[in-house]
Design brief:
With 526 residues, this protein is α+β, with helices and mostly antiparallel strands. Helices cover 29% and strands 23% of the residues. The strands form six sheets. It has an eight-stranded mixed sheet with strand order 7-6-5-3-2-1-15-16, with helices on one face. It has a six-stranded mixed sheet with strand order 8-9-10-11-12-13, covered by helices on one side. The protein has a five-stranded mixed sheet with strand order 19-18-17-20-21. This is MBL fold metallo-hydrolase. InterPro entries: RibonucZ/Hydroxyglut_hydro, Rieske_2Fe-2S, Rieske_2Fe-2S_sf, SCP2_Rv3818.
């Protein structure tokens, strides 16, 4: 099995029975904030795009690059579709001209022509990408590969049960806006960033230890930030709180925990993977490339500057009545929302900075009141501050996912009262009736589900499944004193009270191991 690195989470897998191109991302994403690093735009995409199969893990723009898919990937390719709850991905592919699809049943091995086998695991929580994320398992002639990209399954047993994996591709770096955009003292940002950076690596080590693959390939990160306004987010300043460590940092950190089987794929690197080992060739020496990272970034910044400026020039739409359009689009969704509106539980404010850089219009999405209106000098749960032009562009284009556009762009600042609230971001990811109805149904089913199994961790007996997204706490749970941390997403719980310390809701069931199991009251049982 030959694996060619094509940048970020992208790779081309070649076997005697066929080729698969995965997640090709080349063009800037999220309001021209994210670029692939190392740069992959100069690869021979005319040839790389001539494949038998195409797999895109989910609709995040650093995985689903519509322009590149339209221009460079053969329309004769069969698209391997995860079993997602909506038809959005297939609809997007059809719009781009693709006509051949294989809808892979979730976690079922499918044998393609010539003995090539694949299995796709689809994650369907509203918090997994825009209505889904997925991983791809491939086997040919006894060689097995798992492309986990940036999916976070609760465990990897579905893949491990199929036999020893020889190549494990997975994310290790950040792909979020926290904590950089929050209006916090720099010392607090650094401390929170270091915590997140450490959790990212801890989660990666756990996945690696679970699968025990012959070789580990760090992929799906980090992006680079080439706009002058965002340049400080690149991990080139010795900031221990930067959440975007690169592949060379991965190798160094992996070595500290005993890892010796890591392989970096630069764009154009080729790994020949067999049951006996892996041989890799690179376009340039890996250590030399990352030693010159700053120079590579500065060269990219100058080369991509015209692209960024052209994108910025396209965002302004002064003809858009922002308040009126937000009312028209969002109020019907507020009327239909039960779980998300209750979960947000208060007003969310948008401060829109005008073209002059000074004037500000403040608009509130009032979840309890089910309306969008001008700000009325009240307390709000969240406050977002961004350029008016970005909201104009979202409304002009009919964007249904402000998370997969505005928030991931990092072109905003934020403040909040109290804990992180996942429902805020879940709602702004679901600005269509189809998405909202799915999310409401998912939370309804999730809330009604009863997790009766308990496990013991240290001095505590806790429910086996994390209240957040059902991770197995026997594997991801760490207890320190009276607090439990689920390492899958870094959520923390106070075990004495059961209260979630990371976000509202999500209470955990727990009691000390040397105390009798509490008896549920009739009210609690109901």
């Amino acid at each position: 099995m030959r694996v060619t690195g094509t940048g970020h989470a992208s790779m081309r897998i070649d076997t005697a029975a066929g080729s698969i191109l995965c997640d090709p991302w080349v063009n800037p994403a999220y309001f021209a904030s994210w670029f692939p690093f190392p740069d992959n735009s100069q690869l021979d995409w005319e040839s790389l795009g001539q494949v038998d199969y195409l797999y895109v893990s989910h609709l995040h723009r650093d995985h689903f690059d519509a322009k590149h898919l339209r221009d460079f990937v053969s329309k004769d390719a069969t698209v391997l579709l995860p079993e997602f709850p909506t038809s959005e991905m297939e609809d997007e592919f059809r719009t781009l001209g693709f006509t051949k699809f294989l809808k892979a049943p979730n976690e079922q091995v499918v044998e393609l022509d010539g003995g090539l086998k694949i299995m796709i695991q689809a994650l369907t929580s509203p918090t997994d990408g825009p209505i889904g994320d997925s991983s791809l398992w491939v086997e040919y002639d006894g060689v097995r590969l798992l492309n986990q990209n940036d999916a976070r399954p609760t465990d990897l047993s579905a893949f491990a049960e199929l036999g020893h994996v020889h190549a494990h591709m997975l994310q290790f770096s950040g792909a979020i806006w926290y904590p950089m955009v929050y209006e916090l003292p720099q010392a607090a940002k650094t401390a929170f960033g270091k915590q997140k950076r450490d959790r990212q690596f801890d989660r990666t080590w756990r996945y690696i230890a679970d699968l025990k693959a012959s070789h580990v390939f760090p992929i799906a990160g980090p992006p680079c930030f080439l706009d002058d306004e965002l340049w400080q987010f690149n991990d080139i300043f010795g900031d221990e709180g930067n959440i975007f460590p690169d592949q060379s940092v991965f190798l160094a950190e992996y070595a500290k925990v005993g890892g010796t089987n890591g392989i970096v794929l630069l764009p154009g690197s080729v790994a020949e993977v067999t049951t006996e080992g892996a041989t890799t060739t690179h376009p340039v020496p890996v250590e030399e490339f990352f030693a010159n990272k700053v120079a590579h970034l500065e060269e990219m910044r100058e080369r991509k500057r015209p692209i960024i400026e052209a994108e910025k020039a396209s965002w302004r739409h002064p003809e858009v009545d922002v308040l009126g359009e937000m009312k028209r689009r969002i109020e019907p969704l507020l009327d239909e929302s039960i779980y998300l509106a209750k979960g947000v539980g208060g007003p969310v404010r948008f401060d829109l900075v005008g073209y002059d850089g000074e004037s500000v219009e403040s608009i509130v999405v009032d979840f309890p009141g089910k309306e969008v209106r001008p700000y009325a000098d009240e307390k709000v749960r969240y406050r977002f501050r961004t350029d008016r032009a970005l909201i104009e562009q979202l409304l002009h284009s009919g964007e249904v996912d402000w998370v997969n556009s505005l928030f991931l762009s990092c072109r905003f600042s934020a403040a909040r009262i109290g804990q992180y609230n996942e429902f805020v971001y879940a709602f702004f990811k679901c600005l269509s009736e189809e998405r909202l109805q799915y999310a409401e149904g998912w939370y309804d089913e999730h809330e009604r589900a009863v997790d009766a199994e308990d496990i013991t961790i240290g001095d505590w007996v806790v429910q086996r499944r994390c209240p957040h997204l059902k991770a197995d706490l026997s594997r991801f749970g760490i207890v320190e004193g009276d607090q439990l941390t689920c390492q899958l997403h870094g959520w923390r719980f106070d075990l004495a009270s059961g209260r979630c310390l990371t976000s509202v809701g999500h209470k955990i069931r727990a009691h000390r191991a040397d105390e009798p199991t509490p008896t549920a009251t009739p009210e609690a049982a109901s």
